[in-house]
Amino acid sequence: MHLDLLTALFVFMLATFLGMDIIRRVSRLLHTPLMSLTNAISSIAVVGALILAGEAKDNLSTWLGAVAVFASTTNLVSGYLITDRMLRMFKRREVKKS
Amino acid sequence: MSTATELLYLISAALFILALRWMSQPDTARRAVAAAVTGMALAVGGTLLHPEIVTYKWIAIAAIAGTLLGIPLARVPLTAVPERTGLSQAFGGLAAGLVGIAKYYLWLQSGELTHFRMAVVAGEVILGCLTCTGGLLAAAKLAEWMTTRPVTYRGQNIVSFLLLGVAGTLGVMLTIDPTQSWMFPIIIGLALVFGVLLILPIGGADMPTVISFLNSYAGLSAVAMGFVLENKLLIAAGALDGSSGFVLSIIMCRAMNRSVTNVLFGAFGAVQTAGKVAEQRTVKSATPTDAAELLTNADSVVIIPGYGMAVAQAQHRVRDLYDQLTKRGVDVKFAVHPVAGRMPGHMNVLLAEADIPYDRLVEMDDINPEMPQVGVALVIGANDVVNPAARTDEKSPIYGMPIIDADKAQTVIAIKRSMNPGFAGIDNDLYYAPNTLMLFGDAKQVIGDVVKQLTGEGH
Q1: How far is A4 from chain B (nearest CA, A)?
Q2: Best residue in B3, B16, B40 to probe A by mutation, most A CBs within 10 Å?
Q3: Residues B36/A37, Cβ–Cβ less than 8 Å
Q4: Structure ipTM over 0.85, yes or no
């Protein structure tokens, strides 16, 4: 599917404004998990890397693609796991253990 | 790209937006992770349907290796989250840079390198490479593998921008004539060096801002990749990430009353202001017994944590102290400065780890008007964020930065390892104030001793 430059810029512009608006509403409490979540979302780069590693056009591009898949998967896995780990810790009320 | 893939990408983008929306409150935040994971799974699934993929061998090997590294990286202690974040930004930049490089050579060979493609590839490679080395250097600074002080030299900004300018110019020249492939490796090299130069002059106290900026760059590299690969999902998800990093860095800059350019090029905290003569000033030191007595006799206690608490892993002892004091009817609150710690929200996560209910955490603007009524302000390993010089000393590098007014409390107890200046290297008048008592020692040890005093009383 062909994507023309203007449509691409349009998507970029809308997503940027939407992102700024949503992020402004995030509680300060959650800024660290927010950052690790957006890190994990930016591993969407895996989409480009997968095609490159899978289409196997030549050695160089396959290798670079595979390293890129490796780098993004690392981000993806660690980003989601650590975000979830942090969020589990946020509790509103005391849970009495004793 | 098939319609099925496009549809999956559409749902995936919607899930990412919902995920960020659900991150606004702790109640819904865990749902956010589930939404983002689903979104990513759909995106990957949709991509694997791609007819151009002929072999899954390299994908599988790389994905397994990435998972094997990702799992231990997610288990780092929470004090190491800032450097993990820097590393993750470096990896994000690396992925974008590599895809850009591969695409350039593929298109160069097949003769499909249009002017437009060349321009966006150059953008992607420059952004990706500078994010990669910048993220690595930030991680090294945050983990203290290297000095946390700014590294500066004369004409630094000029050199840095000259480099970026040359890289940009070469990018433009390549766009005009994409076959001049000798320029391409030079662009890569310049971008890699620029990433290092961008982070070198930035001091420890500015790391929360810089780590947010790098988040933004990592997102923008994904956007650039989206332009290269003509992929709307990459553009949308990258833009969400980019704007989130941008918003966070603005919030951090405001919390320090500094402009973005000042943070990036100001070399904050480079040298201790020479104006102050090294006069011998005395501090009053106290014992854990004194501190225990003061704390129990106070009506209200405000605990101000800083990175020192994190380094000492003292958050669980702080929790014990909170329990003991609350049991005695003392009102205990935690005042968290927006830039306390080394990344946005760092202290909140550590206190949450110690099971301290998040409704006891109060933001700076809400606590400051109450400070004069507070019995004891207990400063644990925080330094610059309680330095009254920010209000009073126009010559101080942190002058004008909003601080938590710990000095206005009736009594201040500051726990500190030694009198060495903090991460940013600025001396703190708070420690010499007449109403301040210093408790020297490792925060975990000292608070443990105070708690022992309290439990030893037989309550």
Answers
A1: 8
A2: B40
A3: yes
A4: yes
